[in-house]
Amino acid sequence: MVSSFITPAATQSISETIIPDIKTTLNLFGMHIRKVSGEWDYPTHAHPQYEFNYLLEGEQLITVNHRQYLQRAGDLVLLRPGEFHSSTSVRNKPFTYFCIHFDIDDKIMNSLLSRLDHVLFESGSAITQQLGPVLGKLVEITTKITEDMSMLLRMRLQSAVFDLLGQLWEAFSLEENFPSSTYEKVELAHLIHNRLQGLVYQRFKPDSPSDRRDGVDDIASDLGISVSHCNRVFRQVYGMSPRVFLSEQMLHEAKLLLDDLRLSISHISSILGYRDIAHFSRQFKRWYGQSPREYRNITV
Predict the structure, then answer these.
(1) Average pLDDT in the 45-52 region?
(2) How far is CA 152 from CA 99, 148, 157, 294, in A?
């Protein structure tokens, strides 16, 4: 079955807890630990990914967009995509650093990363203190990796980087220099996002008629905000209105179900909560420009 799930009959389920879908892709590039000599002098360059540079030993003079930062052991540097940077050794002494290049398609995390106005986080800062244990874990895993990296180490590596990003989010929610209004706005958008996904799942329940209101008004009311504020905050973080997001999610679920040839279109319309196949077909064509049958004939 390719769809997220098909809700069991109401009489079969005593209770349930549904976690909103997690559709996040994390890409890691050129992660490495490197010890360099006192003659180290890396030229100015830029790359399209984010970079964490964590100094393990010694000192490094790093220049970012023509501004110099002295990085000492335990300090963390965060570089954004496209930022020009270079580095040199200090007083001709060697140093050791750990580096991660990454990108992530999570809009909430990217919204946070794009708003950070810091480059260097000193070892004594609250953020570096909170991230330190996870960075240590990543360093430990990296030292065990060979050219024949096992699946276990690969999954542990990705898990640790996700943990690092989660700790970064948590740390910035407490950092004084991070605007509380920005954090609160992103958190509110995240709550709206989860409620919208809940509306998608309601469509799978036989007692949830599809001709009810789209639910955005109800979400705004539940969260104690106006509908206009709900729409504005969600659009600022996700780049689309809540109604467009809801339509995209319903279209996604419908396409997954249509890809399963074991399910008739009539059955799919019932799974999605539509009162009849004609209603589902009209809605699908509004979303996709083709009827469910036309979509299935072309793609399957």
Answers:
(1) 91
(2) 21, 11, 9, 43
Give the tokens for residue 188.
């509110």
Give tens-digit pLDDT for 4-41: 455 566 567 677 776 767 778 899 998 999 999 999 99
Q: What percent of the chain has pLDDT over 90?
A: 37
**175: which DSSP letter?**
-
**What whole-number distance in Å separates Cα of residue 200 and Cα of residue 192?**
13
From the centroid of its chain, how far is CA 159? 13
What is the layout of strands, in order, in the sheet containing 85-89?
Answer: 41-45, 85-89, 59-64, 67-72
- Name which of 4, 2, 19, 20 is nearest 204 in CA terms: 4
CB 257 within 8 A of CB 263: yes
Q: What HEC string does 229-243 produce?
A: HHHHHHHHHHCCCHH
Q: Given 3-state DSSP classes, what are the helix, strand and coil percentages for the chain, each rounded to the nearest 5?
A: 45, 20, 35
CA 259 to each of CA 20, 88, 298: distance values in angstroms, whole numbers, following the listed order:
22, 55, 11
Helix (H) or strand (E) holding 267: helix 265-271
Q: Which residue has the tokens 């004084």?
A: 176
Please give the helix or strand (H or E) that residue 171 lies within, else none.
helix 151-174
Q: Confirm if 35 and 95 have CB atoms less than 8 A apart.
A: yes
Question: What value does the mean pLDDT of the chain take?
Answer: 84
pLDDT score for 100: 94
Residue 193 parent element (H or E): helix 180-202
Residues with Cβ within 8 Å of residue 240, at least 6 apart in sequence: 234, 248
